[in-house]
């Protein structure tokens, strides 16, 4: 499976630069790859629900409760880029049209903490599904890797070559590769049911 250097060199190929053997080999290309790789990777992972990057975890409540508004809080995993679902609670008819922004919401994400539950309750293990930062590139989907290489090429084009044209070409290739990766990813996902809004619910009352 492709390594970090393989994907880096794939990006360098796209802008017409020589390959590197290591991010520490001292070349301008290696220095730029070392600086940009993780930033671009995590941004691309966070944007979409890539199947290979989804994890599940049971979070233990912190010993210290929030100052007010919620019963307990949980520390997000260090590799968490984006929360997908918290617990599995059926709240009945969806009232999302009327939800405010206060502490009456079931949970809130503040900083790297999840605030959850009514004040005065006791914290239990909290099921969490989230998008993780997948540093091991051998776990990547191949289509995602190709889209990532195009995006990295976009970021490398200007500082390495000074060419706006190469950046534009990389951007066009990125859009095409991303669309292909999304199609491949979507075929593996089950259909998602969209919650009824209050307009729909009013018709069944």
Describe this structure in words.
By secondary structure, the chain is an alpha+beta fold. The protein has two domains: 4-50 and 141-186, no CATH class; 53-132, no CATH class. The protein is 39% helix and 16% strand. The protein contains five helices and six strands. It has helices spanning 4-14, 28-47, 142-161, 164-187, 198-202; strands spanning 54-59, 72-75, 80-86, 107-110, 113-116, 126-132. Strands 1-6-3 form a three-stranded antiparallel β-sheet, covered by helices on one side. Strands 2-5-4 form a three-stranded antiparallel β-sheet, with no helix packed on it. A hairpin with a 2-residue loop joins strand 4 (107-110) and strand 5 (113-116). The longest helix is centred in the last third of the chain and has 24 residues, at 164-187. 25% of the residues are buried.
Query: What composes the largest sheet?
Result: 3 strands, antiparallel
Q: Give the tally of structural domains.
A: 2
CA-based shape? elongated
The share of residues in extended strands comes to: 15-25%
- The oligomeric status of these chains comes to single chain
Quickly give the structural class: alpha+beta
Q: What is the rounded Rg?
A: 22 Å
Beta strands, count: 6
Our count of helices gives: 5
Low-confidence runs: 89-100
Query: Could you state the order of secondary-structure elements as H and E?
Result: HHEEEEEEHHH
Distance between the termini: 55 Å
Helix content: 25-40%
Instruction: Average the pLDDT over all residues and give the rounded result.
Output: 86
Physical arrangement of strands within the biggest beta sheet: 1-6-3
